Structure formats: structure tokens, C-alpha cells
Amino acid sequence: MPDGRDDEELLAALGGAVKARQAVPDWFVETGKNAYAWHDIDAELAQLTYDSDSDADRGVAAAVRSEAASIRALTFTSARLSVELEVASDSLVGQIIPPRAGTLEVHTTAGVTSWPVDEIGCFAVTPIPASPFRLRCRMEDGTDVLTGWITL
Amino acid sequence: MRDDPTVVALVNRAARGDPAAWNEIVERYAPLVWAICTRFQLSTHDREDVGQNVWLLLVEQLGKLREPAALPGWLATTTHRECLRVVTAARKSERLGTELDDASQFVDNTIIDEEILMAERNAALRAALAELPPRYQQLLAMLISDPPYSYAEISATLQIPVGSIGPQRARCLERLRKSSALAGLGDVSWTEGNEHA
User: Fold this and answer.
1) Which of A151, B11, B104, B195 is most buried, by the most CB atoms less than 10 A from its CB?
2) Do B144 and A23 make contact, defined as CB atoms within 8 angstroms?
């Protein structure tokens, strides 16, 4: 049989647990719930294979470019295609390699926008989407590739 | 405690496509993610960034978690890593040097372990509270309120005599201890470290 002190401790612990939940704003919880929309997306995943901003890749970039370029460059690679991205001042430009036409979807937590990819695989997205975002490449030849989440 | 069957069941259900299970995972562990962001003193914008990334990463890992029971640990270390990422990015943009040159880049396992333990305990306590009849929940809510209600206020609100609040409180807590949500915790001390909650 618990004594009075045990009751006090349990009550205090309960108070702490409830307070910890109350400290979390609703929007924070909603963000987590909304993430489930990404469950079971049937597209091939492309991994980030190059990032001009990462420490590991900076040495490579410095060797390739004569001076430290301010443009951020990213490459995502999957078995069937690569996405090369450059972050310009007000837009996101890039190319699908090997080149082919199709549609580029930009997915943010707020929704989806679609952009054309021309015959040589080039696209431009204006303005730069809010982070985090991910790109889904739906090509005319049926290739469907999704990048990982990108935070700029 | 790391083998909490509730967590394993929730992860498996969410991996099979049950959105209600996913929502419950988020409800249970959003306070853990939030508390770690608070430890890093992140801005609202950075918390949003970290929160989004952590849950998006979890969605992709759902079917791949080797130990579903270790979910709280996975969430804590992933949140910690995401917090370090935004802190590092902020330092870079402020040109305070590109290296994280202090101890903050090393994961302090003692703090994380404590946060995981607290998160599991708090989730179990909240689940136990939710299992109680509404009247018991109401009484306990008034008893743990900060600032606390006086017995006179509780008596007036819940329409019970002041003299029976003590005995009812004892009964509520007894029910709480015997709830299935707390049964999984075994014999625990309630005194340790709620200040991190």
C-alpha cells in the first residue's frame, strides 16, 4: 500500500508529464502528423551524392573551381537518373541527366507545384521553395524518381 | 521499458499504413522532440525545420527500424543531430567560423538517455491518465494544475465535499498505478528529474 509520500511523488510526476505535453504548440504536433503523407510513395529514391556546402565535398569543389563559388550545387543520384541542382539568388535551376523531358514536382510541407522539364532535361523553379522540400521527377519515359529532403 | 509493447505495436501499425497509429506516435513523442529543441534554445523557425525533418525521416524509416521498441532512442538521437545541423548552419551564416569548435558537437549520451527515459515515462503517465474515467481525470487535472487549486475551489467545481477530496485523490492515484499504461513500467521511482520535462 503506497504511503502519502508515494502519492505526492506520483502526482508531481504526473504534473510534469502533463506540463511537458502542454509546452508543445499544436502546430508542432500537426507538422509531425502531416509527415505521414509521405508514407508509401511509390517512386525510386535518389540520394544526395554531392553538396558544395558539405565539408567533405568542399575540397573537391575548391580543386575544380578557381575560387570559392557562392552558388550552392547539389547532385542527387538514383539508378536511373541524376538531378543536378544549382541554387541561384532567386531561383532553383537544374538538369536531369541523362537528358529527357517530363515534369518536375516540388513538394514542400505546404503542398506541391509542377514545373516543366525540357527536351534537354533543364528546368527552373522560381522562387526558391521553402525548406524543407523534395523533388519528384516524373519523366515522359515513365521514370519516377524522388530526391531526399532538401534544406537550403 | 525499452521493450514497451505499445510502442512496438504503434510502429508496426504505422509501417503497415495506419494513420491513427502514426498520429499516436507523434502525440506521444512530440514532447521529446520539442524538449531537445528547447535544450538547444532553437528559434521557432528552427524548431519547425527540425520537427519537419525528424518526422519526415521517421516516415521513411518506419518499415526499416531494426528495433521498433528503440523508437524513442532513435527519435532522440535524430533530433539531436538535426538540432546540431541548424546550429552549425546558423554559425556559418553568421561567419562565426565554420567549425563547431566546442563540445556541443559531441553527443552527450547521459543527457540523451535521461531525455529518452523521461519521454517514455511521461508518455506512459499521460496514457495512464487518459485511461481513467473523466471524473478522475478532472480531479487529477485540478490537483496538478500550476498554480494549484485550493481544496475549496476543487470542492466547488467538482461538487464534492472538501473532506472527500483526500480519499478520492488516493483512489485516483491507485487506479493510475494499476492502469495498463503504467503496468509496463514496473517498479519505478517518480522522484527523478522531472525538471527536464
Assistant:
1) B11
2) no
Q: Report DSSP letters for B81-110, one per residue.
A: HHHHHHHHHHHHHTTS-SS--SGGGS--HH
Note the CATH number of domain A42-147: 2.60.40
Q: In this complex, which of A2, A20, A151 lies closest to B49 when CB atoms are compared? A: A151
Q: Each residue of B35-72: pLDDT tens digit?
A: 999 999 999 989 998 998 899 899 988 988 888 888 99
For B94, the grid coordinates are 553568421
B48 part of contact set with chain A, CB < 8 Å: yes
Rg (CA), chain A: 22
Q: What local confidence, expressed as pLDDT, does residue A17 receive? A: 95
Backbone angles phi, psi at B129, to 5 degrees: -60, -40
What span, in angstroms and rounded, lies between the C-alpha atoms of B137 and B143?
A: 10
Same structural domain, B65 and B122? yes
